[in-house]
């Protein structure tokens, strides 16, 4: 009897442990499914909106956003499901070769997503902080195509090439084998460990260089937006003090307040974009650099949390770069509401107030050259300025 009871104790403990973990596993499955579903639907909606809306296709920034949405869509379709299955079942069932392919796709697509965010920041910098002719010279269709191509080609040099060749595992092969069979059973894990040279190179190319460029670009955009709002305010006050009528003063005050609110909103949007990007990816890439230098002692659960926090950025990108833009929201409503006329934009041939501010996917700036030069630009600058403003306001 005692022997029989002793033999049944491990079985009973295992059953109790499984029953306790079942609610946690169900909660984990629901959370991971929600992240994947929202990421797929959001990025698909962005791509369909640009394909169906002719005015959205006219703005160069939106080509970066579509390519970003495609990269994030591939992350949610080709990378997240296999990571979720392994996280739930705690083992890898698809073989060693597919483990390498899945890991390479993970590095390729997440790096491409981050590089697209960097290109969007640079595009906004040239559009907002430079003269209109400089922007048109910098962001030609060929250059936009090359930048998008670079966002997809550069990651291959830190993903498929080194991972399939095994460069990331040089010197740590024995550690990888130990972790692959660490539980002592026949099941294996898809282990991705990197040596120090690969960790530094991959992190610098995929995160730290884009982070520095984004911080510099958005800092200049923020300063420029605030300077524009201050210049408009000062000039309108001077115009009001010079003896404008009461109605003119009220109109000027209304326009000034509107522009100040717009610039403040744009600055907040930039802070949200940078904050979400750093919150999602900084923990993973800090851990990625630190882990090889502390003898790979970072717990597996912490790795999984940091990795999925980075995946969540693919879900947030459609919200940050598209849903915050009025033109995209209108296109989304047309798609979701089956093209109701109430959401369609007015005809561009109709009469309306001239556009005096350019909004580029959440970042707004006043057309500074009409203020700084009092309208004394060349005819070519006027034409370029009017066209760029007209496209963005639509």
What tags apply to this protein structure?
Rhopdopsin 7-helix transmembrane proteins; 5-hydroxytryptamine receptor 4; mainly alpha; disordered C terminus; G-protein coupled receptor; receptor; GPCR_Rhodpsn; 394 residues; transducer
Q: What's a concise summary of this model?
A:
Helix content is 75%, strand content 2%. With 394 residues, the chain is mainly alpha-helical. The chain has a two-stranded antiparallel sheet.
Overall geometric form: elongated
Biggest sheet details: 2 strands, antiparallel
- CA radius of gyration is 26 Å
The CATH C-level name is: Mainly Alpha
CATH topology: Rhopdopsin 7-helix transmembrane proteins
Series of secondary-structure elements, N-terminal to C-terminal: HHHHHHHHHHHHEEHH
Quickly count the domains. Answer: 1
User: Could you report the average pLDDT, rounded to the nearest whole number?
Assistant: 79
> What do we call the CATH homologous superfamily?
Rhodopsin 7-helix transmembrane proteins
CATH architecture: Up-down Bundle
Which blocks of ≥5 consecutive residues have pLDDT under 50?
Answer: 1-17, 347-394
Beginning-to-end CA distance, first to last residue: 83 Å
| Strand arrangement, major sheet | 1-2
Q: Give me the secondary-structure category.
A: mainly alpha
Number of helices: 14
- The fraction of residues assigned to DSSP E strands is under 5%
**How much helix is in the residues?**
over 70%
User: Would you report the number of β strands?
Assistant: 2
């Amino acid at each position: 009897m005692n022997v029989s009871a002793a033999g049944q104790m491990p079985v009973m403990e295992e059953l109790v442990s499984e029953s306790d973990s079942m609610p946690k596993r169900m909660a984990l499955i629901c959370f991971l499914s929600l992240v994947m579903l929202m990421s797929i639907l959001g990025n698909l909606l962005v791509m369909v909106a640009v394909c169906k809306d002719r005015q959205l296709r006219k703005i160069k920034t939106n080509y970066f956003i579509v390519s970003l949405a495609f990269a994030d869509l591939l992350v949610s379709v080709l990378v997240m499901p296999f990571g979720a299955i392994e996280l739930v079942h705690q083992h890898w069932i698809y073989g060693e070769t597919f483990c390498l392919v899945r890991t390479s796709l993970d590095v390729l697509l997440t790096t491409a997503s981050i590089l697209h965010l960097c290109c969007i920041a640079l595009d906004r910098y040239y559009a907002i902080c430079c003269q209109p002719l400089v922007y048109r010279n910098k962001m030609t269709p060929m250059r936009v195509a090359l930048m998008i191509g670079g966002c997809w080609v550069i990651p291959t040099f830190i993903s498929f090439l080194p991972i399939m060749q095994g460069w990331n595992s040089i010197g740590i092969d024995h550690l990888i084998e130990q972790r692959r069979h660490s539980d002592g059973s026949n099941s294996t894990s898809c282990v991705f460990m990197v040596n120090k040279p690969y960790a530094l190179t991959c992190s610098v190319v995929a995160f730290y260089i884009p982070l520095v460029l984004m911080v510099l670009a958005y800092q200049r955009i923020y300063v420029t937006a605030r300077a524009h709002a201050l210049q408009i305010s000062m000039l309108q006050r001077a115009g009001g003090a010079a003896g404008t009528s009461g109605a003119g003063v009220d109109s000027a005050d209304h326009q000034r307040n509107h522009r100040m609110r717009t610039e403040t909103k744009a600055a907040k949007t930039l802070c949200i974009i940078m904050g979400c990007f750093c919150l999602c990816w900084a923990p993973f890439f800090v851990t990625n650099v630190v882990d090889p230098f502390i003898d790979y002692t970072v717990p597996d659960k912490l790795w999984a949390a940091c990795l999925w926090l980075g995946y969540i950025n693919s879900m947030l990108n459609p919200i940050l770069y598209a849903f915050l833009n009025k033109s995209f929201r209108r296109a989304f409503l047309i798609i979701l509401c089956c093209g109701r006329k109430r959401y369609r934009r007015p005809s561009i041939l109709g009469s309306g107030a001239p556009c005096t501010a350019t909004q580029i996917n959440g970042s707004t700036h006043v057309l500074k050259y009409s203020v700084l030069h009092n309208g004394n630009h060349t005819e070519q600058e006027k034409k370029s300025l009017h066209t760029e403003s007209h496209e963005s306001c639509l």
